[in-house]
Amino acid sequence: MQIDIITIFPEYFESPLKVGLLGKALQKGLLEINLVNLRDFCQDKHRVVDDEPFGGGEGMVLKPEPLYRAITFLKQKSESPWVVYLSPQGEVLNQKIAEELSQKQHLILICGRYEGIDERIKETLVNQEVSIGDYVVFGGEVASLVLIECIARLIPGVVGKKDSVEKESFSSGLLKYPCYTRPRDFMGLKVPEVLLSGNHMAIEVYRRQKSLELTLKKRPHLLRQTQLSQEDLKFLANLLKKQRVYLFLLHYPVYNKRKEVITSAIANIDLHDLGRLGRTYGLKGIYIVQPLEDQRELAQELLDFWLKGGGAKYNPLRKEALKLVKIFPTFEEALDAVHRQEGEKPLLIGTDASPKKPPIPIETLQKFLWETPIVIVLGTAWGLTEEFLAKCDYFLEPIWGRLDPYNHLSVRSAASIIIDRLLGLYSFYKKSYKRKD
Amino acid sequence: MQIDIITIFPEYFESPLKVGLLGKALQKGLLEINLVNLRDFCQDKHRVVDDEPFGGGEGMVLKPEPLYRAITFLKQKSESPWVVYLSPQGEVLNQKIAEELSQKQHLILICGRYEGIDERIKETLVNQEVSIGDYVVFGGEVASLVLIECIARLIPGVVGKKDSVEKESFSSGLLKYPCYTRPRDFMGLKVPEVLLSGNHMAIEVYRRQKSLELTLKKRPHLLRQTQLSQEDLKFLANLLKKQRVYLFLLHYPVYNKRKEVITSAIANIDLHDLGRLGRTYGLKGIYIVQPLEDQRELAQELLDFWLKGGGAKYNPLRKEALKLVKIFPTFEEALDAVHRQEGEKPLLIGTDASPKKPPIPIETLQKFLWETPIVIVLGTAWGLTEEFLAKCDYFLEPIWGRLDPYNHLSVRSAASIIIDRLLGLYSFYKKSYKRKD
User: Fold this and answer.
1) How many whole angstroms separate alpha carbon B65 and alpha carbon B47?
2) How far is CA B171 from its chain centroid?
């Protein structure tokens, strides 16, 4: 593989390309890197590469002509050149993109500086824009270095043993397990027993599980693209049981249209929809709060039909879902039930379509999932009362309108979206499971 | 600010630290970088920094003792040292993390190599683990360079004019607008007129809009954290109208429990829930397919009550939602209506809780959103028939179970989750809007 780097700072690369495995790979000719000084393609005597932006503003822009000459010159060197512009506007680099690029025969990397390159070069000569992440650096040089390291590691022979590439973080789609070396006891901190056992199978299992756990807790999105075995799935499902989420649906105290505090009626469909949602996402309970006794009795009758009556036989899947649904006369009793079940006080999360205070970001709530039981409270009718919301530890961000502020979802839709935003990231059953029915 | 870098390759940093604005900042003493050779903290005569991992496997691990000595030595240099380990397991660097780190007085960066550092150092001496992205490089050196560049740019005086930092990609929370410099006409490609107009207000608007558009199309998640004005929101909403999504709910052809092809009955609640969902997310239509005439008439009566009858006055918000709902006798007629409305054939996306073919990733469908009208088809009862699904261009990934394969959501829940996964990323109304009701 051949990589040309177009830069106004070729000297930037001097030392990094000499060091470690990359330095060795270059010496051995496993890949070839050619530093191209953009100034060599200027035709004026001061070799000016930049000029002021049209439209004004601070900073300079890399002129189109020298870049055009450099790129077209370099493209002639091979039959299949691939021009990459390192830029914050590019698609964010990941292991998959690195793998695709490592298959190319000839890469031409353009390092931007200052305010960037003239847009017309992007439009006409650049095949792909790549960004190394959602942050700003001084120029494309460090981004090129990152890209080159990613690609070089994947070229056969660069990293000694294949094993070492594949067990790295991301290469397997997972973060890497923790490593230990001598001494066995370092200032009282001991190496996990299993690693000293000599039992290779047990070590393999320990490491796989540590990788799975780290990835689940720190980068769950990676698991979506990972091949998971039945054992992996079982292990992950077991870890996910530490996330204890309850959904409460309150029929009191809620507002009516005129902002009067009322008790609303139970809609049977809510019990079904929320039960099915809860069962699919592994919630620990769907607790319905309804102070009116006749309403509770009616709802219980419905539940009993599906749990014990004709419904249980007709549709066992529905039975499983409705097993999660319980009916309480007051919010306090429902909360107590969670407290008793979990042995600790849960975090109370309110929902409100037009909150007065800043909401808790879903990412923060996802971190709490590992620490504490969580109760998410939804109101029926025109929503939970302000007095009730004041008792909650946090609010969730409402589900906003897209084209305008209209956000009037049904409680069934809102519950589904909230639960998916909170927990959907942790669903991995897709990979190996095929439903049999 | 003082940055100590612990590395086994101090020579790596030689040239990059001399170049450009970072080189100047170091010369001027705006920040101080101190390269620390880990080998200097070895006490054996061969200065060995690595050892084999307990439990076996390829690659070496950085030993705990030299790291311990190096870190504890460096920590004594200031009152508030902050130890960062650059590692793939860390939280992914973004501009917010860079800003936080740029506030520290004294950073100690640890560059890992080989298989990483002994876990016990992480547990006891590291304050924060940072990763530069979801990809693998040779070691922490290039990651340290990236982090240093991000941080250095934020130190006052390093980048000449404040303006230039703030208008960079990400610094404002948006990607940067396209830049142009002379010549006005480059090989037939012209600079946009507005940039030559001298009208500063118009140029400001053009650039803001280009930034918004680029960010919306390439990194919509950044907009969630950006302060958006009413004008911004209006402009974004207008762009989002190019995304033309329809939701179809089919009552025929669908399976019953025994996998016989049937026609199911319309559930009134579906019309309400899907209408409200559609209006909130800016869908272009909720099309209900029902071949039975009496069923269609009943549903139309219900719609008319909310659109023209007593319901329209009682709840105008519901009227807005139900305006999207239309009822068709056949799928073909519903599809034709979209075709006529959009002037082109829409992409047909099927949904299936247990698909036989690999589904289309939601990220791919998000790219199609800008190119073509999209129809997402949901089935009632036990789902769409295989024959129907075979006609679809793609399938969506099912909403999988979390702890086990159970995935039996109501069609209302499934629709809500699918639409939110596809379009929720593009909801920005939250920032400036406060509902008045």
Assistant:
1) 12
2) 17
The three-class DSSP label of residue A249 is: strand
CA gap B185, A64 in Å, rounded: 10
SS3 A254: strand
Of B12, B119, B176, the CB nearest to A178: B119
Would an 8 Å CB–CB cutoff place B189 in contact with chain A?
Answer: yes
> What is the total residue count of chain A?
437
| Chain B residues close to A404, C-beta within 8 Å | 237, 429
Q: In Å, how far is B404's CA from the nearest CA of chain A?
A: 7
- Report d(CA B89, CA B128) in Å as an integer: 11
Contact A179 B16 (CB under 8 A): no
pLDDT of residue B345: 97
Read off the tokens for A360: 């808790």
Chain A contact present for B396, CB below 8 A:
no
C-beta neighbour count of B16 within 10 angstroms: 26
pLDDT tens digits for A59-81?
A: 899 999 999 999 999 999 999 99
Q: pLDDT per residue over A318-356, tens digit each?
A: 999 999 999 999 999 999 999 999 999 999 999 987 777
Q: Which of B153, B186, B194 sits opposite A64 (nearest CB)?
A: B186
Q: Which residues pair with residue A285 across a beta bridge?
A: A246
**Confidence band for B434, pLDDT divided at 50, 70 and 90:** very low
A368 touches chain B (CB under 8 A): no
Give the sign of the dihedral formed by CA A361, CA B272, CA B320, CA B323.
Answer: positive
Q: Does A384 touch chain B (CB under 8 A)?
A: no
Answer whether residue A437 shows pLDDT above 50. Answer: no
Residue A412 has which token pair?
A: 């069934």
Arithmetic mean of pLDDT, B394-410: 91
Which of A165, A181, A269 is the closest to B269 by Cβ?
A269
The answer to whether B155 and B161 are in contact (CB under 8 A) is: no
**Interacting residues of B304 by C-beta distance below 8 A, sequence separation 6+:** none
- The Cα of B345 is separated from the nearest Cα of chain A by a number of Å equal to 24
Cα–chain-centroid distance for residue A357?
26
CB contact under 8 A, A54 and B240: no
Q: What ipTM did this prediction achieve?
A: 0.95
Tell me the two tokens of residue A418: 């909230």
| B416/A421 touch (CB, cutoff 8 Å), yes or no | no
| CA–CA distance, A251 with A289 (Å, rounded to integer) | 6
- Kind and range of the H or E element at A7? strand A2-7
pLDDT at B342 over 90: yes
The residue among A162, A280, A366, A404 with the most chain B CBs within 10 A of its CB, best to mutate, is: A280
H helix or E strand, kind and range, residue A201? helix A200-218
Pairwise CA distance, residues B136 & B201, whole Å: 45
Give the pLDDT confidence score for residue B169 in this predicted structure. Answer: 65
Tell me which of A236-250, B28-42, B276-290, B396-410 is least confident. Answer: B396-410
Query: Length of chain B, please?
Result: 437
Q: Does any CB of chain A come closer than 8 Å to the CB of residue B15?
A: yes
CB contact under 8 A, A181 and B60: yes
- Helix/strand number for chain B, H first, E second: 18, 17
Q: State the residue for tokens 């800003």.
A: B99
Helices and strands, counts by H and E, chain A: 18, 17
Confidence of residue A32 (pLDDT cuts 50, 70, 90): very high
A84 CB neighbour count, 10 Å cutoff: 23
How close, in Å, is residue A105 to chain B by CA atoms? 20
What is the pTM (predicted TM-score) of this model? 0.95
Q: Judge whether residue A125 has pLDDT over 50.
A: yes
Per the listing, tokens 């942050």 go with A135
Q: With H, G, I as helix, E, B as strand and everything else as coil, classify residue B25.
A: helix
